[in-house]
Amino acid sequence: MPTNPLESQLLEALRQLKHPEIESRTLGALGMIQAVRIEGNQASVTVALPLMQATVRGTLVDLVRQAAREVDPALDVAVEFAKMTPEARAAFMAVARAKRPPRRPSGASGASWPS
């Protein structure tokens, strides 16, 4: 749990990031944001991965750092990775594979289409 307002802001921003390969899902929905700590202008973010050899690691580091800069440009962010527990990995896979709502056709008014 965040212990200060800046940690809360950063945590919320990170939870809203879209996964680079599962674009219809956020890192929060996938259970990937494990920890956020800020001391002074030093931030530490732990991202949980279903597989430690995930090819998106570099992209995730870039996304996390960009989100942190948007919350507070003075933050210096260290990104660490942790392996998901089997239970967390199962939850990740369930969310990742869940049926997605249909995409809104271009030009549609959207009244009956989910966002």
How would you characterize the overall build of this protein?
It is a single chain. The protein is of the alpha+beta class. It has a single domain (5-96), classed as GMP Synthetase, Chain A, domain 3, CATH 3.30.300.130. Helices cover 33% and strands 20% of the residues. The chain has helices spanning 5-15, 57-71, 86-97, and strands at 33-39, 42-49, 76-83. It has a three-stranded mixed β-sheet with strand order 1-2-3, with helices on one face. The protein is globular. The relative contact order is 0.17.
Describe this structure in a few short sentences:
The protein is built from three helices and three strands; from the N terminus they run αββαβα.
SSE arrangement:
Blueprint: H1 5-15, E1 33-39, E2 42-49, H2 57-71, E3 76-83, H3 86-97
Parallel strand pairs: 2-3
Antiparallel strand pairs: 1-2
